[in-house]
Design brief:
Elements: E1 12-13, H1 21-29, E2 32-33, H2 38-66, H3 76-92, E3 97-105, E4 110-112, H4 119-132, E5 134-147, H5 155-166, H6 170-182, H7 198-215, H8 249-252, H9 260-276, E6 281-292, E7 295-306, H10 309-316, H11 318-321, E8 337-349, H12 358-367, H13 385-397, E9 401-405, E10 410-414, H14 416-424, H15 427-430, H16 432-446, H17 452-469, H18 476-480, E11 484-487, E12 494-497, E13 501-504, E14 512-514, H19 518-522, H20 529-538, E15 540-547, E16 553-562, E17 568-574
Antiparallel strand pairs: 1-2, 3-4, 3-8, 5-6, 5-8, 6-7, 9-10, 11-12, 12-13, 13-14, 15-16, 16-17
Helix pairs in contact: 2-16, 2-17, 5-6, 5-9, 5-12, 6-9, 9-10, 12-13
């Protein structure tokens, strides 16, 4: 409105990281001159315009080339390419078998040989060990190690943990933490910083003390060697908003009244806040090296010296982690030799790369092109914390990605349509390096180190080159064809799946099964691919536990027919002929 009205008058901005009353009062007491945020505004405007220009031109270009609606995006397409490349690597992977010989020693531990590719060599070693039945201790190495506490949460690391531990999608986590922010229970969620500023250190110190009392955590787990909040302070790494924190209002709130998803996400944030200011986790790692039949065998053990931040994690997240992480300490071996109680051959094989989950895909987006970017560039990934969840959701909604797996562990797989799109896409549109380079330049604009016009000129030149040089790939039309799932009951032509439903390929036919289907919604059901397949094949599908308007459940069969004009029509047949 300010721009459209052509207004030139100075104004101030209210800049908040929390919706708490005292934070809002503090914000109004220290309003910021608008000029302090001109560069941030320019960067956001450039990002918005670049995304729109690439999307509208590239989508139109490829839709015309291949005769069907295709969505192409500055961030979306490289992310899809990542998943396609990963699936290609999995498909091309050839597992290799290997063998190890395990020795159960009288000292109370099991020592293993190196991986041996040839089974005959491993079998000969097994025979030799069984013949000797004694292992000579070569050396025992003990080393004290530690793991520093994890940093505070930014949005991406919170989304990754919520996916890994709770099975929540990135969008679900964003929705939950946004709701917590609006309820004044957490600070601003769309942040890319894991740190706080010096101005916030005293606030965090007081907050952690109150959280300890609130949760009954003893101070001995906290780090007193240095001011415990000091490692969370880094002004240079806080751009717009500091890390995600619980608020003091949360301490007085009725947390049991929150939806379960919000409770779990809040619990992660509370735990991470306390873990970040706790002592390091310290342990003693022991490596026992023995020799038998001319081959080295090793056994490893760990002994906890100080739980530190892991004690906080265990206490606060016990119900979420739902596991016991036992560390095995090696028994003391006083003699130079150990007897062998048993020797056995173990077979294994190398593992292929893992399918992407939302956790690992978010990490890949965050670190994309890190190796190829100039040293010292801060923003190396593609997308921003605020947009990565929406990018994944859009790829799923457009039918380029699909989620598969159980409720807690879902993988993201490219569909045939997604693979086909990447097959015909020019390298520059797939490249994470180019998109990450744009993100780095947008950060330069945000800092006032680059003119917005320079960036937008680059974008326009890239689009112009793309439009004038790209031609349809030979033989690609077969790849780009929509999946046929059945025959149209109205005209007999193929029915294909598209973004919003299953359509008859005959343009003059009005038959369609909408995915967002009002009839099925009234039954408390979804019209998915399985239901559509049954309806087209058999003309009917049996549904269990349909819901009536009064909330009662019943079983029924949905019958499919066609109206006079070809549109789909549904009716119900109840069990028992009622």
């Amino acid at each position: 409105m300010y721009q459209q009205a052509g207004c030139k008058k100075p104004f101030t901005r209210l800049w908040l990281s929390s919706m708490e009353e005292n934070a809002i009062r503090e914000g109004f007491a220290h309003l910021k001159p608008s000029t302090e945020y001109d560069a941030l505004y320019n960067a956001a405007l450039c990002r918005e315009r670049a995304d729109w220009m690439v999307g509208i031109n590239a989508s139109r270009l490829f839709s015309c080339l291949y005769g069907q609606p295709l969505a192409v995006g500055r961030v979306m397409t490289p992310v899809l390419a990542m998943t396609v490349v990963r699936e290609a690597a999995i498909a091309a992977f050839v597992p290799e078998k290997f063998y190890t010989v395990d020795l159960e020693l009288t000292s109370g531990c099991t020592a293993s040989s190196r991986r041996i590719p040839e089974k005959s060599v491993a079998e000969n070693l097994l025979k030799a060990c069984r013949k000797e039945m004694v292992a000579t201790i070569q050396r025992i190495t003990r080393k004290e190690k530690s793991e520093n506490p994890p940093p505070l949460y930014d949005l991406t690391t919170l989304q990754r943990d919520a996916n890994r531990l709770l099975g929540y999608s990135a969008q679900q986590t964003l929705d939950y933490v946004q709701s917590l922010y609006e309820k004044k229970l957490t600070t601003y969620p769309r942040t890319d910083s894991c740190y706080i500023t010096d101005d916030d250190e005293e606030m965090l110190e007081e907050l952690t003390e109150e959280l300890e009392v609130f949760l009954g955590i003893t101070p001995e787990d906290m780090d007193e060697a240095v001011p415990r909040t000091r490692r969370t302070v880094n002004r240079e790494k806080v751009t717009d908003h500091h890390a995600i924190l619980p608020t003091r209002s949360m301490l007085q709130a009725d947390l049991e009244a929150l939806p379960k998803g919000e409770q779990n996400v809040l619990k992660l944030i509370i735990a991470r806040t306390l873990m970040a200011v706790s002592k390091p986790f310290r342990y003693l790692e022991t490596l026992l090296t023995t020799e038998c039949a001319g081959e080295e065998f090793t056994a490893k053990g760990k002994e906890v010296l100080e739980e530190g931040w892991k004690a906080v994690e265990r206490k606060v997240l016990a119900d979420i982690l739902n596991r016991k992480q036992e560390l095995t300490a090696l028994p003391n071996a006083a003699e130079n030799e150990c007897g062998i109680l048993n020797a056995e051959l173990k077979e294994g094989q190398t593992s292929p790369p893992k399918h992407f989950t939302e956790d690992t895909l978010l990490h890949a987006m965050e670190t994309a092109s890190a190796d190829s970017m100039p040293e010292g560039v801060e923003r190396q990934g593609i997308g921003t914390p605020a947009t990565r969840a929406a990018t994944i959701e859009k790829l799923v909604q457009k039918g380029f990605l699909e989620r598969k797996g159980n409720k807690k562990t879902k993988v993201l797989l490219p569909t045939d349509k997604g693979k086909a799109l990447i097959t015909v896409m020019p390298e520059e549109m797939q490249s994470a390096d180019m998109t990450a380079d744009w993100e780095a330049k947008l950060l330069q604009i945000e800092r006032g180190e680059m003119e917005p016009e320079t960036f937008m000129t680059e974008i326009k030149e890239m689009i112009s080159s793309l439009v004038t040089t790209t031609e349809a790939a030979k033989g690609a039309n077969a790849l780009m064809k929509n999946k046929i799932i059945g025959v149209c009951p109205n005209c007999g032509k193929p029915v294909v799946e598209r973004e919003k439903g299953w359509f008859c390929e005959n343009r003059e036919c009005r038959f369609v099964l909408w995915k967002d289907n009002a009839f099925f919604k009234r039954l408390g059901k979804r019209l998915d691919a399985h239901v559509a397949d049954k309806l087209l094949r058999d003309g009917r599908v049996r549904l269990k536990d349909c819901k009536s308007a009064k909330g009662k459940t019943y079983n029924a069969t949905v019958l499919l027919s066609c109206e006079a004009d070809g549109r789909s029509k549904f009716s119900l047949e109840f069990e028992g002929g009622c």
